[in-house]
Specification:
Blueprint: H1 2-10, H2 15-29, H3 35-43, E1 52-54, E2 57-59, E3 63-65, H4 76-81, E4 86-92, E5 105-108, E6 113-116, H5 125-132, E7 139-144, H6 155-166, E8 172-176, H7 191-206, E9 214-218, H8 224-237, E10 241-244, H9 258-264, E11 268-271, H10 275-288, E12 295-298, H11 304-313, E13 317-320, H12 322-327, H13 331-338
Parallel strand pairs: 3-4, 3-13, 4-7, 7-8, 8-9, 9-10, 10-12, 12-13
Antiparallel strand pairs: 1-2, 5-6, 6-11
Helix pairs in contact: 6-7, 7-8, 8-10, 10-11
Length: 341
Amino acid sequence: MYKSIIRPILFTFKPETIHSIIFASLRIMQHIPGTSVLTRKLFLYKTSSAEKEVFGIKFPNPIGLAAGLDKNANVYNTFGNMGFGFVEIGTITPKAQKGNPKPRLFRMKKNKALINRMGFNNEGIDYAIKKLRKNKTVIVGGNIGKNKMTPNKDAILDYEICFNSLFPYVDYFVINVSSPNTPDLRELQNKEPLEKLLSHIQNLNNNKPNRKPVLLKIAPDLTFEQIDDIIEIVERTKIDGLIATNTTISREGLSYTKEEIEQIGMGGLSGKPLTKRSTEIIKYISDKTNKKIPIIGVGGIMNEKDAIEKLEAGASLIQIYTAFIYEGPSFVKKLLKKMAL
């Protein structure tokens, strides 16, 4: 029903417009008695065999919602009711920012893909905390970044503000230095600035009464030599894991003309064209480290085959984003059933 009736209607709207409409509706629904129970009845598939413990957290199932959808922590409980084992909010920055000029989100329907150049649009750390203070019923990860106007030389302070402020309210952290949509952000993936940033966050973390898992989200456009450097840094700083991968600046695999692609312009590509590359990176890291570094696999998981391949490649957990747009709210339930989890 979703793909045959609902999705065609939703896709008549501009992507960011319908996103705003749906999220406004979900926020209203949260205040209507009985909707949470109904949502769980329709979409939740609970089985003890799907439970998995990773970096000290017991997840009800290994399928999470990737950062980018619930940027401001508005409806994370609703996504939990839809069956997600965990929800990653953000990317959150210290100050609210509008992000890049619109249009900045594009459907590539022929390839079940999206291109976005949102630019860390969010309401800022104080807004997120206000939302996270409410009764939390799902495991929440905090994806944190720097403000666009903060130069890279001062980026550590932005990450420190987000880390310390969000610490009481999230279950794990993700350091995002791999989005292609904030100018120069990916330079922080280079060896020296990355090690400096992660060491600083770990020092803050280790001085807390009870530390929390810290993960690094990496780009799919890195070379294997760059990934080797990241593995070394992860081992030296002793962060808890990696998320592989973010969106790609590559346009390989798209069934569109060069002119159509150029007309859309810059942005990160997600969805089906990313499936193979993200799985390759997961396998490379897993093999290189003898599975010692926990990995959350994300990128082009569009069906149960893709999900299983990510797990077999070495991912401990997986996340979806674009598939939720194309396959609808029943997708997690279908995945868990077909994967026999």
